[in-house]
Amino acid sequence: MSNNKAETYEVKIDMLDKKGSGRGHVWRDGGGINPRKLKLTVPQTLIGEEVQVTVANPDRKRARALPDEIIKPSVERTVAPCPHFDKCGGCVWQHWDYQGQLAYKVAEVRRFLAGNGFDPDVAADAIGMETPWEYRNKMEFTFGPEGGLGLHELGNFRNVIDLDTCLIAGGPMVQAMLEVSRWQKDHDLPGYDKDAHAGLLRNLMTRYSQKTGELMLAIFATDSPKAHQKAVDDLISRLSSKFSGLVSFMWMENTDWADVAQAEHTHLLYGRDYIHDEMYGYKYRIWFDTFFQTNPEQAEKLVELAIEMAEVGSEDRMIDLFCGVGTFSLPFAKRVKALAGIEIVETSIESAKRNAKDNGINNTYFLAKDARRGMDEILQTWGTPDLLMLDPPRSGAGGKVMRRIGRLGTDRVVYVSCNPESFAEDITWLREYGYELKRVQPVDLFPHTVHIELVALLEKA
Ligand SMILES: C[S@@+](CC[C@H](N)C(=O)[O-])C[C@H]1O[C@@H](n2cnc3c(N)ncnc32)[C@H](O)[C@@H]1O
User: Fold this and answer.
1) Domain that holds residue 157
2) Is the CB of 332 under 6 A from ligand 1?
3) 324 C-alpha vs ligand 1 centroid, how far in Å?
4) What are the pLDDT digits (tens) for 268-293?
Protein backbone atom coordinates (compact mmCIF):
# COMPACT_ATOMS: atom_id res chain seq x y z
CA MET A 1 0.00 0.00 0.00
CA SER A 2 1.40 3.37 -1.00
CA ASN A 3 1.88 6.00 1.67
CA ASN A 4 2.75 9.40 0.28
CA LYS A 5 2.95 11.10 3.66
CA ALA A 6 6.43 12.28 4.57
CA GLU A 7 7.89 10.70 7.71
CA THR A 8 10.59 12.00 10.04
CA TYR A 9 13.17 9.72 11.66
CA GLU A 10 16.11 9.93 14.00
CA VAL A 11 18.96 7.87 12.66
CA LYS A 12 22.52 7.06 13.66
CA ILE A 13 25.07 7.24 10.85
CA ASP A 14 27.21 4.11 10.90
CA MET A 15 29.15 4.29 7.64
CA LEU A 16 29.86 6.43 4.58
CA ASP A 17 29.10 5.31 1.04
CA LYS A 18 31.40 5.63 -1.97
CA LYS A 19 30.10 9.12 -2.70
CA GLY A 20 30.87 10.27 0.85
CA SER A 21 27.26 10.34 2.13
CA GLY A 22 26.30 8.98 5.57
CA ARG A 23 24.38 5.72 5.78
CA GLY A 24 22.13 4.45 8.56
CA HIS A 25 18.87 2.58 8.98
CA VAL A 26 15.63 2.65 10.94
CA TRP A 27 12.99 0.01 11.60
CA ARG A 28 9.49 0.94 10.50
CA ASP A 29 6.19 -0.50 11.48
CA GLY A 30 5.02 -1.97 8.17
CA GLY A 31 1.55 -2.89 9.41
CA GLY A 32 2.45 -6.61 9.50
CA ILE A 33 4.04 -8.75 12.21
CA ASN A 34 7.64 -7.76 11.50
CA PRO A 35 9.04 -4.23 11.34
CA ARG A 36 10.62 -3.31 8.01
CA LYS A 37 14.11 -2.00 7.56
CA LEU A 38 14.50 1.36 5.82
CA LYS A 39 18.04 2.12 4.69
CA LEU A 40 18.79 5.83 4.69
CA THR A 41 21.44 7.75 2.78
CA VAL A 42 22.07 11.13 4.38
CA PRO A 43 24.59 13.43 2.63
CA GLN A 44 26.59 15.93 4.70
CA THR A 45 26.69 13.73 7.80
CA LEU A 46 29.55 11.93 9.55
CA ILE A 47 30.05 8.50 11.10
CA GLY A 48 28.67 8.32 14.67
CA GLU A 49 26.35 11.30 14.26
CA GLU A 50 22.70 11.15 15.24
CA VAL A 51 20.59 13.13 12.81
CA GLN A 52 16.98 13.86 12.04
CA VAL A 53 15.78 13.32 8.47
CA THR A 54 12.45 13.69 6.74
CA VAL A 55 11.75 11.24 3.93
CA ALA A 56 9.18 12.21 1.32
CA ASN A 57 8.11 8.70 0.37
CA PRO A 58 9.22 6.16 2.98
CA ASP A 59 7.48 3.12 1.49
CA ARG A 60 10.55 1.94 -0.33
CA LYS A 61 13.40 0.00 1.26
CA ARG A 62 15.88 2.82 0.63
CA ALA A 63 15.61 6.57 0.80
CA ARG A 64 17.91 9.56 0.50
CA ALA A 65 17.49 12.92 2.22
CA LEU A 66 19.56 15.78 3.55
CA PRO A 67 19.48 16.09 7.37
CA ASP A 68 16.88 18.42 8.93
CA GLU A 69 18.99 18.65 12.03
CA ILE A 70 22.21 17.22 13.45
CA ILE A 71 21.07 16.01 16.88
CA LYS A 72 24.45 14.72 18.04
CA PRO A 73 27.31 16.15 15.94
CA SER A 74 30.68 14.47 15.50
CA VAL A 75 33.66 16.18 17.16
CA GLU A 76 35.13 16.31 13.65
CA ARG A 77 32.22 18.36 12.30
CA THR A 78 33.12 21.86 11.20
CA VAL A 79 31.32 24.76 9.54
CA ALA A 80 31.59 24.53 5.75
CA PRO A 81 33.17 27.78 4.56
CA CYS A 82 31.53 27.79 1.12
CA PRO A 83 28.11 29.50 0.99
CA HIS A 84 27.01 26.99 -1.69
CA PHE A 85 27.98 23.85 0.24
CA ASP A 86 24.41 22.90 1.24
CA LYS A 87 23.32 22.53 -2.38
CA CYS A 88 26.39 22.26 -4.60
CA GLY A 89 27.53 18.82 -5.75
CA GLY A 90 31.16 19.95 -6.15
CA CYS A 91 32.56 19.17 -2.68
CA VAL A 92 30.94 16.62 -0.38
CA TRP A 93 33.03 16.96 2.78
CA GLN A 94 33.44 20.64 3.62
CA HIS A 95 31.56 19.92 6.87
CA TRP A 96 34.39 17.60 7.99
CA ASP A 97 37.60 18.99 9.46
CA TYR A 98 40.51 18.34 7.12
CA GLN A 99 42.44 16.04 9.49
CA GLY A 100 39.31 13.91 9.87
CA GLN A 101 38.97 13.61 6.08
CA LEU A 102 42.61 12.57 5.75
CA ALA A 103 42.36 9.95 8.51
CA TYR A 104 39.26 8.43 6.89
CA LYS A 105 40.88 8.31 3.44
CA VAL A 106 43.91 6.46 4.85
CA ALA A 107 41.62 4.04 6.72
CA GLU A 108 39.95 3.31 3.39
CA VAL A 109 43.30 2.65 1.70
CA ARG A 110 44.18 0.24 4.54
CA ARG A 111 40.77 -1.44 4.32
CA PHE A 112 41.22 -2.16 0.60
CA LEU A 113 44.73 -3.48 1.21
CA ALA A 114 43.56 -5.78 4.03
CA GLY A 115 40.59 -6.91 1.92
CA ASN A 116 43.02 -8.14 -0.73
CA GLY A 117 45.34 -9.90 1.72
CA PHE A 118 48.02 -7.20 2.12
CA ASP A 119 49.38 -5.84 5.38
CA PRO A 120 47.32 -2.63 5.88
CA ASP A 121 50.09 -1.06 7.94
CA VAL A 122 52.27 -0.75 4.84
CA ALA A 123 50.20 2.36 4.09
CA ALA A 124 51.62 5.50 5.70
CA ASP A 125 49.52 8.45 6.89
CA ALA A 126 48.37 10.72 4.08
CA ILE A 127 50.30 13.75 2.92
CA GLY A 128 47.69 16.50 3.01
CA MET A 129 47.73 20.12 1.88
CA GLU A 130 48.74 22.92 4.22
CA THR A 131 46.01 25.13 2.71
CA PRO A 132 43.43 22.83 1.14
CA TRP A 133 41.66 25.55 -0.89
CA GLU A 134 41.94 27.04 -4.38
CA TYR A 135 43.90 23.99 -5.42
CA ARG A 136 42.32 23.13 -8.78
CA ASN A 137 43.83 24.29 -12.07
CA LYS A 138 40.85 23.23 -14.18
CA MET A 139 37.09 23.68 -13.74
CA GLU A 140 34.19 22.84 -15.95
CA PHE A 141 31.13 24.96 -15.18
CA THR A 142 27.65 24.38 -16.60
CA PHE A 143 25.08 26.89 -17.85
CA GLY A 144 21.69 26.12 -16.31
CA PRO A 145 18.58 25.73 -18.49
CA GLU A 146 16.84 28.31 -16.27
CA GLY A 147 19.83 30.68 -16.45
CA GLY A 148 22.83 30.80 -14.15
CA LEU A 149 26.33 29.38 -14.41
CA GLY A 150 27.93 27.03 -11.93
CA LEU A 151 28.05 23.39 -10.86
CA HIS A 152 25.44 20.66 -10.71
CA GLU A 153 23.22 20.43 -7.65
CA LEU A 154 24.01 17.76 -5.07
CA GLY A 155 21.96 14.66 -5.94
CA ASN A 156 20.23 16.35 -8.89
CA PHE A 157 22.32 16.46 -12.03
CA ARG A 158 19.63 18.36 -13.95
CA ASN A 159 19.82 21.45 -11.74
CA VAL A 160 22.66 23.93 -11.84
CA ILE A 161 23.68 26.03 -8.85
CA ASP A 162 24.33 29.63 -9.93
CA LEU A 163 27.64 30.16 -8.15
CA ASP A 164 29.09 33.38 -6.86
CA THR A 165 32.25 31.68 -5.63
CA CYS A 166 34.02 28.32 -5.65
CA LEU A 167 36.55 27.74 -2.89
CA ILE A 168 38.47 24.88 -4.50
CA ALA A 169 39.08 26.64 -7.84
CA GLY A 170 41.97 29.01 -8.41
CA GLY A 171 40.88 32.69 -8.09
CA PRO A 172 41.15 33.84 -11.75
CA MET A 173 38.96 30.93 -12.89
CA VAL A 174 36.20 32.02 -10.50
CA GLN A 175 36.50 35.67 -11.53
CA ALA A 176 36.30 34.67 -15.20
CA MET A 177 33.27 32.47 -14.50
CA LEU A 178 31.52 35.41 -12.81
CA GLU A 179 32.33 37.72 -15.74
CA VAL A 180 30.92 35.19 -18.23
CA SER A 181 27.85 34.81 -16.04
CA ARG A 182 27.26 38.60 -16.04
CA TRP A 183 27.77 38.68 -19.81
CA GLN A 184 25.19 35.92 -20.30
CA LYS A 185 22.64 37.88 -18.25
CA ASP A 186 23.42 41.18 -20.00
CA HIS A 187 22.81 39.61 -23.43
CA ASP A 188 19.97 37.40 -22.24
CA LEU A 189 21.48 34.29 -23.83
CA PRO A 190 19.72 31.00 -23.03
CA GLY A 191 21.44 28.12 -21.25
CA TYR A 192 21.17 24.67 -22.79
CA ASP A 193 18.29 22.42 -21.75
CA LYS A 194 19.35 18.80 -22.19
CA ASP A 195 15.81 17.41 -22.02
CA ALA A 196 14.55 19.67 -24.82
CA HIS A 197 17.96 19.72 -26.59
CA ALA A 198 17.45 23.48 -26.94
CA GLY A 199 19.26 26.62 -25.82
CA LEU A 200 22.69 28.02 -26.66
CA LEU A 201 25.27 27.91 -23.87
CA ARG A 202 26.35 24.53 -22.48
CA ASN A 203 29.64 24.70 -20.56
CA LEU A 204 32.46 27.00 -19.61
CA MET A 205 35.82 25.30 -19.26
CA THR A 206 38.57 27.17 -17.42
CA ARG A 207 42.23 26.23 -17.07
CA TYR A 208 44.70 28.29 -15.09
CA SER A 209 48.37 27.81 -14.34
CA GLN A 210 49.50 29.18 -10.99
CA LYS A 211 53.10 28.90 -12.16
CA THR A 212 52.85 30.84 -15.45
CA GLY A 213 49.68 32.85 -14.70
CA GLU A 214 48.21 31.81 -18.08
CA LEU A 215 44.44 31.42 -18.33
CA MET A 216 42.37 29.49 -20.89
CA LEU A 217 38.62 29.83 -21.32
CA ALA A 218 36.44 27.76 -23.63
CA ILE A 219 32.70 28.15 -24.09
CA PHE A 220 30.79 25.14 -25.39
CA ALA A 221 27.65 26.14 -27.29
CA THR A 222 25.15 24.67 -29.72
CA ASP A 223 25.66 27.36 -32.36
CA SER A 224 28.45 29.15 -34.17
CA PRO A 225 29.86 32.35 -32.55
CA LYS A 226 29.19 34.14 -35.87
CA ALA A 227 25.46 33.83 -35.23
CA HIS A 228 25.96 35.87 -32.02
CA GLN A 229 28.74 38.15 -33.19
CA LYS A 230 27.80 41.27 -31.20
CA ALA A 231 27.54 39.44 -27.91
CA VAL A 232 30.71 37.45 -28.63
CA ASP A 233 32.68 40.61 -29.49
CA ASP A 234 31.53 42.13 -26.21
CA LEU A 235 32.73 39.05 -24.31
CA ILE A 236 36.14 39.08 -26.01
CA SER A 237 36.56 42.73 -25.12
CA ARG A 238 35.43 42.26 -21.49
CA LEU A 239 37.64 39.22 -20.90
CA SER A 240 40.76 40.53 -22.62
CA SER A 241 40.61 43.84 -20.75
CA LYS A 242 39.91 42.31 -17.32
CA PHE A 243 42.19 39.25 -17.37
CA SER A 244 45.81 40.02 -18.14
CA GLY A 245 46.64 36.29 -17.93
CA LEU A 246 44.13 35.36 -20.65
CA VAL A 247 46.11 33.80 -23.49
CA SER A 248 43.48 31.48 -24.93
CA PHE A 249 39.76 31.93 -25.51
CA MET A 250 37.83 29.49 -27.64
CA TRP A 251 34.26 28.85 -28.68
CA MET A 252 33.44 25.19 -29.20
CA GLU A 253 30.42 24.16 -31.20
CA ASN A 254 28.78 21.09 -29.76
CA THR A 255 25.37 20.00 -31.03
CA ASP A 256 25.58 16.45 -29.67
CA TRP A 257 22.91 15.10 -27.32
CA ALA A 258 25.62 13.63 -25.10
CA ASP A 259 26.35 15.82 -22.09
CA VAL A 260 30.12 16.03 -22.45
CA ALA A 261 32.33 19.03 -23.12
CA GLN A 262 33.44 18.06 -26.62
CA ALA A 263 33.79 20.08 -29.83
CA GLU A 264 32.68 19.52 -33.42
CA HIS A 265 34.16 22.87 -34.51
CA THR A 266 36.67 24.93 -32.59
CA HIS A 267 36.75 28.71 -33.10
CA LEU A 268 39.78 30.45 -31.68
CA LEU A 269 38.48 33.86 -30.59
CA TYR A 270 41.52 35.20 -28.78
CA GLY A 271 45.20 34.24 -28.43
CA ARG A 272 46.34 30.66 -29.02
CA ASP A 273 44.72 27.28 -28.42
CA TYR A 274 46.94 26.17 -25.51
CA ILE A 275 48.46 27.48 -22.30
CA HIS A 276 51.89 26.92 -20.81
CA ASP A 277 52.08 25.26 -17.43
CA GLU A 278 54.92 24.00 -15.28
CA MET A 279 55.23 20.96 -13.05
CA TYR A 280 58.27 19.90 -11.04
CA GLY A 281 60.37 22.40 -12.99
CA TYR A 282 59.32 21.16 -16.45
CA LYS A 283 57.30 23.09 -19.00
CA TYR A 284 54.10 21.70 -20.55
CA ARG A 285 51.71 22.87 -23.24
CA ILE A 286 48.12 22.20 -22.26
CA TRP A 287 45.27 22.13 -24.78
CA PHE A 288 41.61 22.25 -23.75
CA ASP A 289 41.33 18.44 -23.76
CA THR A 290 44.77 17.53 -22.40
CA PHE A 291 44.76 15.36 -19.27
CA PHE A 292 46.91 17.19 -16.73
CA GLN A 293 47.00 16.63 -12.97
CA THR A 294 44.37 18.99 -11.51
CA ASN A 295 46.12 19.72 -8.21
CA PRO A 296 49.62 20.81 -9.27
CA GLU A 297 50.96 21.45 -5.74
CA GLN A 298 50.20 17.89 -4.62
CA ALA A 299 51.02 16.33 -8.01
CA GLU A 300 54.60 17.54 -7.59
CA LYS A 301 54.73 15.50 -4.38
CA LEU A 302 53.59 12.44 -6.35
CA VAL A 303 56.44 12.93 -8.81
CA GLU A 304 58.91 13.38 -5.94
CA LEU A 305 57.70 10.19 -4.24
CA ALA A 306 57.75 8.15 -7.45
CA ILE A 307 61.37 9.22 -8.06
CA GLU A 308 62.32 8.43 -4.45
CA MET A 309 60.72 4.96 -4.54
CA ALA A 310 62.08 4.07 -7.98
CA GLU A 311 65.75 4.59 -7.00
CA VAL A 312 66.68 4.65 -10.68
CA GLY A 313 70.27 4.93 -11.92
CA SER A 314 71.75 6.72 -14.91
CA GLU A 315 72.19 3.45 -16.85
CA ASP A 316 68.59 2.26 -16.31
CA ARG A 317 65.90 1.87 -18.93
CA MET A 318 62.34 2.29 -17.78
CA ILE A 319 58.73 2.23 -18.92
CA ASP A 320 56.18 4.90 -17.96
CA LEU A 321 52.90 3.11 -18.60
CA PHE A 322 49.78 5.33 -19.03
CA CYS A 323 52.18 8.27 -19.41
CA GLY A 324 49.71 10.94 -20.62
CA VAL A 325 51.58 14.10 -21.64
CA GLY A 326 54.66 13.00 -19.69
CA THR A 327 54.15 14.40 -16.18
CA PHE A 328 56.29 11.60 -14.74
CA SER A 329 58.22 10.78 -17.93
CA LEU A 330 60.13 14.06 -18.16
CA PRO A 331 61.53 14.17 -14.60
CA PHE A 332 62.37 10.45 -14.83
CA ALA A 333 64.01 10.83 -18.25
CA LYS A 334 66.57 13.18 -16.72
CA ARG A 335 67.58 10.41 -14.29
CA VAL A 336 67.74 7.34 -16.55
CA LYS A 337 69.44 6.25 -19.76
CA ALA A 338 66.21 5.76 -21.71
CA LEU A 339 62.49 6.03 -21.03
CA ALA A 340 59.60 4.56 -23.01
CA GLY A 341 56.23 6.23 -22.44
CA ILE A 342 53.08 4.31 -23.41
CA GLU A 343 49.69 5.94 -23.70
CA ILE A 344 46.56 5.20 -25.74
CA VAL A 345 45.53 8.78 -26.63
CA GLU A 346 47.47 9.94 -29.67
CA THR A 347 47.19 13.67 -28.97
CA SER A 348 48.66 13.10 -25.49
CA ILE A 349 51.60 11.26 -27.04
CA GLU A 350 52.15 14.07 -29.56
CA SER A 351 52.05 16.44 -26.62
CA ALA A 352 54.49 14.29 -24.60
CA LYS A 353 56.95 14.33 -27.54
CA ARG A 354 56.70 18.09 -27.84
CA ASN A 355 57.03 18.54 -24.08
CA ALA A 356 60.21 16.42 -24.09
CA LYS A 357 61.62 18.55 -26.93
CA ASP A 358 60.64 21.84 -25.23
CA ASN A 359 62.52 20.68 -22.13
CA GLY A 360 65.66 19.59 -23.99
CA ILE A 361 65.04 15.87 -23.31
CA ASN A 362 66.11 13.46 -26.04
CA ASN A 363 66.23 10.02 -24.42
CA THR A 364 62.48 9.36 -24.52
CA TYR A 365 60.54 7.09 -26.83
CA PHE A 366 56.75 7.68 -26.75
CA LEU A 367 54.29 5.15 -28.15
CA ALA A 368 50.61 5.81 -28.86
CA LYS A 369 49.50 2.29 -28.03
CA ASP A 370 47.31 0.29 -25.73
CA ALA A 371 49.25 -0.61 -22.55
CA ARG A 372 49.73 -4.32 -23.39
CA ARG A 373 50.75 -3.83 -27.01
CA GLY A 374 53.10 -1.05 -25.98
CA MET A 375 54.80 -3.30 -23.40
CA ASP A 376 55.17 -6.07 -26.00
CA GLU A 377 56.88 -3.67 -28.38
CA ILE A 378 59.31 -2.45 -25.70
CA LEU A 379 60.07 -6.02 -24.65
CA GLN A 380 60.95 -6.92 -28.26
CA THR A 381 63.30 -3.96 -28.67
CA TRP A 382 64.83 -3.68 -25.19
CA GLY A 383 64.27 -6.97 -23.43
CA THR A 384 63.33 -6.53 -19.76
CA PRO A 385 63.68 -2.89 -18.61
CA ASP A 386 64.99 -2.00 -15.13
CA LEU A 387 61.84 -0.30 -13.87
CA LEU A 388 58.20 0.01 -14.75
CA MET A 389 55.97 2.73 -13.38
CA LEU A 390 52.26 2.94 -14.08
CA ASP A 391 49.54 5.52 -13.48
CA PRO A 392 46.32 4.01 -14.85
CA PRO A 393 42.85 5.62 -14.96
CA ARG A 394 40.39 5.20 -12.05
CA SER A 395 39.25 1.80 -13.28
CA GLY A 396 42.80 0.49 -12.74
CA ALA A 397 45.05 -1.39 -15.15
CA GLY A 398 43.09 -4.66 -14.98
CA GLY A 399 44.23 -8.30 -14.77
CA LYS A 400 45.51 -8.62 -18.34
CA VAL A 401 47.83 -5.61 -18.08
CA MET A 402 48.96 -6.58 -14.56
CA ARG A 403 49.81 -10.14 -15.66
CA ARG A 404 51.78 -8.67 -18.56
CA ILE A 405 53.69 -6.50 -16.08
CA GLY A 406 54.29 -9.58 -13.91
CA ARG A 407 55.73 -11.49 -16.87
CA LEU A 408 57.85 -8.50 -17.88
CA GLY A 409 59.58 -9.01 -14.53
CA THR A 410 61.28 -5.68 -13.73
CA ASP A 411 62.87 -5.67 -10.25
CA ARG A 412 60.69 -2.75 -9.17
CA VAL A 413 57.24 -1.54 -10.02
CA VAL A 414 56.10 1.95 -8.95
CA TYR A 415 52.32 2.27 -9.07
CA VAL A 416 50.60 5.69 -8.94
CA SER A 417 46.87 5.36 -8.38
CA CYS A 418 43.85 7.63 -8.02
CA ASN A 419 41.69 4.77 -6.78
CA PRO A 420 42.84 2.64 -3.82
CA GLU A 421 40.18 0.02 -4.54
CA SER A 422 41.28 -0.77 -8.12
CA PHE A 423 44.92 -0.43 -7.01
CA ALA A 424 44.57 -3.11 -4.30
CA GLU A 425 42.85 -5.45 -6.77
CA ASP A 426 45.46 -4.82 -9.47
CA ILE A 427 48.47 -5.57 -7.28
CA THR A 428 47.10 -8.96 -6.22
CA TRP A 429 48.05 -10.10 -9.76
CA LEU A 430 51.69 -9.28 -9.07
CA ARG A 431 51.85 -11.57 -6.02
CA GLU A 432 52.00 -14.69 -8.14
CA TYR A 433 55.00 -13.25 -9.98
CA GLY A 434 56.89 -12.89 -6.68
CA TYR A 435 56.35 -9.18 -5.98
CA GLU A 436 56.02 -7.84 -2.44
CA LEU A 437 54.30 -4.60 -1.48
CA LYS A 438 56.94 -2.43 0.21
CA ARG A 439 55.47 1.05 0.51
CA VAL A 440 52.16 2.84 0.05
CA GLN A 441 52.06 6.62 0.43
CA PRO A 442 48.63 8.26 0.13
CA VAL A 443 48.68 11.88 -1.07
CA ASP A 444 45.57 14.04 -0.93
CA LEU A 445 45.03 15.68 -4.30
CA PHE A 446 41.32 16.20 -3.80
CA PRO A 447 40.51 17.86 -0.43
CA HIS A 448 36.79 17.92 0.52
CA THR A 449 36.02 15.09 -1.90
CA VAL A 450 36.11 11.30 -1.39
CA HIS A 451 39.13 10.83 -3.64
CA ILE A 452 42.73 10.08 -2.67
CA GLU A 453 45.83 9.42 -4.73
CA LEU A 454 48.70 7.14 -3.72
CA VAL A 455 52.19 6.09 -4.77
CA ALA A 456 53.27 2.51 -4.07
CA LEU A 457 56.41 0.44 -4.45
CA LEU A 458 56.46 -3.28 -5.24
CA GLU A 459 59.68 -5.28 -5.36
CA LYS A 460 60.48 -8.74 -6.61
CA ALA A 461 61.32 -10.89 -3.59
C1 LIG B 1 45.52 8.90 -14.59
S2 LIG B 1 46.01 9.32 -16.23
C3 LIG B 1 47.74 9.48 -15.99
C4 LIG B 1 48.47 10.32 -16.97
C5 LIG B 1 49.88 10.76 -16.61
N6 LIG B 1 50.64 9.75 -15.92
C7 LIG B 1 49.84 12.05 -15.83
O8 LIG B 1 50.12 12.04 -14.62
O9 LIG B 1 49.54 13.09 -16.41
C10 LIG B 1 45.79 7.79 -17.05
C11 LIG B 1 46.18 7.79 -18.53
O12 LIG B 1 45.98 6.46 -19.05
C13 LIG B 1 45.58 6.56 -20.40
N14 LIG B 1 44.98 5.26 -20.79
C15 LIG B 1 43.71 4.81 -20.51
N16 LIG B 1 43.56 3.56 -20.97
C17 LIG B 1 44.72 3.18 -21.54
C18 LIG B 1 45.19 1.97 -22.16
N19 LIG B 1 44.39 0.91 -22.28
N20 LIG B 1 46.44 1.91 -22.60
C21 LIG B 1 47.27 2.99 -22.47
N22 LIG B 1 46.90 4.17 -21.89
C23 LIG B 1 45.64 4.26 -21.43
C24 LIG B 1 44.64 7.76 -20.39
O25 LIG B 1 44.51 8.31 -21.68
C26 LIG B 1 45.35 8.70 -19.41
O27 LIG B 1 46.22 9.60 -20.06
Assistant:
1) 138-279
2) no
3) 5
4) 999 999 999 999 999 999 999 889 99
